[in-house]
Amino acid sequence: ARKKWSGYQIGFLRILANTITDAMKMVDIEKNLVQAKERAEESDRLKSAFLANVSHEIRTPMNAILGFLSLLKEPRLEEEQRSEYIGVVNKSGQRLLDTINDIMELSKIESGQVKVQQVEVNVSELMKDQYHMFLPQIREKGLSFRLSENIPATFQKIVTDRLKLEGIMINLINNAIKFTNAGVVEFGNYLRDDEIVFYVKDTGIGIPYDKQETVFERFVQADLGLARKHEGTGLGLSIVKAYLELLHGRIWLDSEPGKGTTFYFSIPKELRENRFHANPDKETKTLNELKEQTVLVAEDDDASFHLIRVFLSREPLHLIRAKNGEDAIQLLRSRGDISLVLMDLKMPGMGGLAATREIRMFNKVVPIIAQTAHALTNDKDETIRAGCNDYIAKPFKQQQLVEIIKKHI
Fold first, then answer.
1. Residue 169: count of CB within 10 angstroms of its CB
2. Over the range 179-199, which residues count as b (16 or more CB within 10 Å of their CB) and which as e?
3. Which of 17, 28, 138, 183 is the most buried (most CB within 10 A)?
4. Whether pTM exceeds 0.70
């Protein structure tokens, strides 16, 4: 016969069921807390390793720069040694700049300041530019470099962000060279459905299987130990992935430890929104054609002004200086012979943007070139809105400065 449960028994069973349910919930909560604690500890470990790595990547080249600069002061230094030391200083300076650029770029990505600037890009020309840029570095390391283009001419022109596409290629080719000691680096592309697929293939050390899913994450490197054999912050692949997300693309890899790695990334054939054709650069004059021209340099830092003066010392230009925005405005009001303004954005008192806005109220003709050490993505747009004609980011090279003056003076 079917047992009839009493009200007391039913109540007891309900209490027992609720107790078991609560116990199971507590087990799940404890399990989740343990997992969260482990994730937090792993995140802290990775960030600590990353900060130690960044400190290493800053201090190491700075040590070389300061050390070899002190050696360059030796009066009886032979020319061969002097040239060698200068080469080390230049290489260390570039390494330091790469580290700072990576950290700045990650900060911009994290804060949402990176925007897409679409222009028409010739894929073949862009790839050839990268090939010729990296060829000396490849040869210096004793590697072979192959360029493999498999896209018909009708699909060579796309609308995308040229600078970000260049940044993706540069990061991946740099990595291939860095982690390949012998053999070949191949840079190519092909069409697949509605995408252009690019790839960078190497015969290098490869990536361990347990790291292949995480190498694109921030603060993660294939090798985080103190005995790392290769320099770099390890931010390159996370920056590449973020760029590709902005370009509606994706990235993946195929790697076998000890045999090599192939990175693939794809972008749409064309980003159709806001399509336009880039205007060709306007024709520029050479400085050799110019007579005496006066350039106003608004720069508060003595070393920076001295560098600009040395860079332009061989050109037919007369430089005058303002140490803040107010002085720059006063000089432009009082003199009619100023042909161009190099405007530092950050100066004591009135900064460069405020000074530019005020100058444009009474002088809409004089070319103003903004110069800044901030180098944020939105800086150029902000300077153009303020009334500047162009923008140059510090540190700049002599040729960059001369060319931008050629363009506007």
1. 22
2. bbeeebbbbbbeeeeebbbbb
3. 138
4. no
